[in-house]
Amino acid sequence: MSAPPVRKISETILDFGEPLLRQLDVALPFDVVQSTFKIVITVWNAHVMAMPRWGQPRLLADLHERMRDPQMPPEMVEAMRTLSQRRSNGSRTTVAQSGNGAS
Question: Are 49 and 93 in contact, with CB atoms under 8 Å apart?
Answer without folding.
Answer: no
